[in-house]
Amino acid sequence: MPRIAIHIILTLLAAFVQGCIHTYPDPARAVDPAKIRLELELTPPAGWDTLMTHSSKAGAEPLRRIIVEMRGRDGHSEKMEFFRPASELSEPVPLSLPLDFMLDPTAYDLAIWSDFVDAASRDFKAFDASDLSDIRIRYDGNVWTPLKDCCSALKRVDLSEHKGKELVTVKVPVMLNRPVARFRLIPLDYEEFLKTNMEQIRKGETYYVEIDLEPGFPLSFDLTSYSTQIESDTTRLTFPLDIITIPGVEVELGSGYLFCDGRATLSARVKILNSAKAVVSRTQEFDIPIAAGKISIIKGDFMTSTISGGLTVDTTWEDEIIIPVGS
């Protein structure tokens, strides 16, 4: 065999053998050969099964949109989006969600967002989550419905213990939490208001509720840092007052929902106006304590505070109740 042919064969064999041997780290590239898959085990917040039952009464079962974003130390990120029947993400069994990411054995920041979408159109009516660093509520009068419920999680995943392994699937448990707070205002003096204004109501008079809140509602939620951003000093909510004359029925004067990254306090003032926009009743400023994932229910005499000489009569609040949002 010619000498040059032997040399070529030996060179090819050397290259083949070198290609079959994994070294860690690779001396030439300093890259760990390990590749890791993740399988998320998502546990929803409390009250999810109640929400599913309530939502299904409206018609076809809605879909849950689940967005997963992995961000490495170099700032590079990968995003995946899933659609699942809402009942799959219910208590007490976690939802298993395999990811197709092939990850290196290092640390990542894992951001997860989930909300409801219409099963037919997959329209995202309640939230714009196209950018997880700038999630927006799509307000429509600030009226809450169960289909506006959402949950999220931010978690650091360290895969360094899997260095040097060829192919590993790592299960990552994730507890989802609600980044939204809710509040409801319940008047204790509704019947008294009706007695005082029944003659005008019979003549066709209508009334409106105006709620001024400080500071303004956070319009943006940054899931990548789990923080909110307030873009205005005040928020004004206006609702038509529903006239309900059935005895014993609890009347809701107004409500709202907003992003919240922990606990906070809103300063509020409530006005009752007639169709001519004249003030019928006005409260002094009061505080609404709010907390992420909870609903604050404030009860008091909102509707019969009177105005005399431009001064507002003090209002005594019955109580301040904070209960889980799923109740």
Give the SSE map.
Elements: H1 3-20, E1 35-43, H2 48-56, E2 63-72, E3 77-85, E4 95-98, E5 107-117, E6 127-128, E7 135-137, E8 150-158, E9 167-175, E10 180-187, H3 190-202, E11 207-214, E12 218-222, E13 227-230, E14 235-240, E15 254-259, E16 263-274, E17 279-282, E18 286-291, E19 294-300, E20 307-308, E21 311-312, E22 317-324
Parallel strand pairs: 1-9, 10-19
Antiparallel strand pairs: 1-4, 2-3, 2-5, 5-8, 6-7, 7-12, 10-15, 11-14, 11-16, 12-13, 16-17, 16-18, 19-22, 20-21
Provide a quick synopsis of the model:
By secondary structure, this protein is mainly beta. It is built from 3 helices and 22 strands. Strands 11, 14, 16, 17 and 18 form a 5-stranded antiparallel β-sheet that branches.
Would you list the SSEs in sequence order as H and E?
HEHEEEEEEEEEHEEEEEEEEEEEE
Helical stretch tally: 3
Mean of pLDDT: 78
Radius of gyration: 28 Å
Q: Using the alpha-carbon principal axes, give the shape.
A: elongated
Main sheet properties: 5 strands, antiparallel
Low-confidence regions: 12-29, 52-57, 307-320, 323-327
Cα distance, first to last residue? 86 Å
